[in-house]
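Sanity check

After download, print the first record. It should look like this:
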Amino acid sequence: MAWDVESSWTPFAAAFRALPFLAVAACAAVVLFLPRRPALRRLSFLCAAAALGFWAFLDLGLDGAVRGWERTLLSDLRWGGLDGLNHLLQVAAFSLLLSGSLVLAAWPMARGRWSEGITALVAGPGLGGAVAAAKLAFPRTAPVPHPFFGGPLGTPDDVATLALGLALLVPWLVWRLRPSSTRVGLILLVPAGFAVGAVALVAGTAWPGDVVAGWLLALAWVPLVFVGEALVLALASGTGPLGRLGERLGRVADRIVANGSSWLWGLVAVGTALRVASFWWTPLGVDAFPYAVMGKSFLATGSFTMPWGDVHTYLTAPAPSHHYPPLYPVLLAGVYKVLGFGRDATHLAGIALGLAAVAVTYLCSRDLYGKGKALVPTAAIAVSPLFIQNTGQAYSENLVLLLFVLTLWAILKSLTRPWFIVAAGLLAGLGYLTKSSMGYFFIIAGLGGLAWRLYWKGWKVLRDPAYVTAIVLFGAVVGSWALRNWLLFGSWETSAHLGAAYAAAFHDPLHWLLLSLIAFTFYATAGYLLYLALLPVFPTLARTPKLASEHDSGLWLALGLPLLLTGLIDGALWLVEGEFFLNNARYIGFVAIPAAWLLVRHADLGKRSVRVGAVLAFTILLAGALWFGKPTVSNVELSSDELAAQMMPGDSVGFVDMNNHLAYRYFFELTQDGTRDVRVQLTCAKDPLCPLGTPGPETLTTTWVFLRGDGAGRLPAAYTLVPTAHTAYVPAKDTYISLWHRAA
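Expected structure tokens:
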């Protein structure tokens, strides 16, 4: 008998969801008003982390609000069933990984023990990331579909990995902080970790090899974390278990830094080479295709008409774009005017913007801090894994970076030369036209900037003619695009999809804030510390002045405000889309600039710890750049190329469970670079986001059909599978794409 979660949970939902926020508010009050009570301050950290972690487990694990986890929730748990118990354990493993990491990190950080706190913060989420990476790198069909990854990924089993990993991490971390802890109770966690993994074997939801692989990964990960921590401490101080090795490696770092700017120029050269190589190595990203279609439409008609309907819909009639902003498509239109419309031209435009962003970073950094220090932020951007990947994908992130750097440079210049704020206002307006994700939240960004100005200049800034002119210019740029959207759609926002996400967020604010908190935690740890490689220089960055000057506070605002806004935006998207996209980390890539500027402004390169931290940070960035810049193959390119070679004039194409956002990925080949019209039919069978009334696959009448999976029994009998070269399963969101042909 299944338990009806909704009927039993709803009466308590409002009060339950409010409890963690009351706990956090109480803890914040303790921190603010009792700063001299360290015991209470530590207790406040623990209470806040425990309350939020407990809520994360119950709200995500029991309430079932997040689509995609529904198979693991109590709504389908039959009491006494081992399969249901294993599903519950999967939810518990991921939830406890988050809450446990927060608690174990908050405790030492509250006591000023930063190294233990950072280790705890990285160890848990890092193990989760290792599990996800292993599943994607070594795909294997599990006995049942995986509830989190949406596909049959089984190696290693996540319950076995995370349970044993937590059982090993918790005793070590607790013993370090409290050597007098009861060891017997902690030691019992280890067999419990093994026992939890064995549940999957008994339930038949994982192969024995998957569970054993999970145990081996956990057993390898835990010592790796602490050896890595010891190595970092040894490198920084020359002491500790690896002090002698650390001293030697420290001297290596000294030699690297002693070579002056040559090693930094070498990193810039590597980043440039990877960007150029992405023309051949990296397939275009999913967002690049609608941008390209908008650019083609603007070049031909002066409008942004989407010939197969607007993205994120199943409507195929031509319609004006109501999702993507205009600036990047306008630049693409200029490229197509010279080079012609096509995939290669789009790649070249992305590469050119990537190289331009690196050059602008160097020029602005040199103007603010001098020629020698300018190479540090330039090299950081050059080998940033996020921007290496986005360059090859021809995303708009490089344009965002370029305008962000120019805007921040102009703002900082305006501190001594006030009329530079006019350029900052214009550049900020153009920056708004490069991303659709801001919406209402640009008001928060604007208010943050205004508050910063008022803090330092007072109300007289509102009478400053330069500042007023900047506001007018910014408003004119943003207002012109908002007016276009209002006249066409009755809404000033750029994106209907994001507008719906924000509406859902405001309708369920507590759940939205929970998801935003999780996204915020992810970006603050994985995003800032790992993706941006700030972990080795985090202590140095934490010691830099916050409010010592208007210049420093402006950089800290530019570093912290995007973290807050990205967490809120991604929380709203998660609420509507039902899943969190790790690729959204690209939204925070540009904050490497204010972080690097703070470091070059205040870091003392005479300290070995600073030099070693810099070398480690660039090593992490370089490794990530080489990984994300390596040659890859796209299932979409393979399938579209194969169909393009067989299509005849007048043929039509259908898509199953692929809305027009995904259908546009085939636009170049199907239309022969926009030289012919192709009728498209979109149908829906399994997509949970499919609108009611959308036709199903049984209504297909097109010549060809693209379908995720093998399609057995899902299409009318007139369709036959076309053998292709790419039908082997490839672990990705696409799974694999099969091609079908309708008999004449």
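If your output differs, re-run the checksum step. Summary of this record's structure: The longest helix spans residues 208-237.
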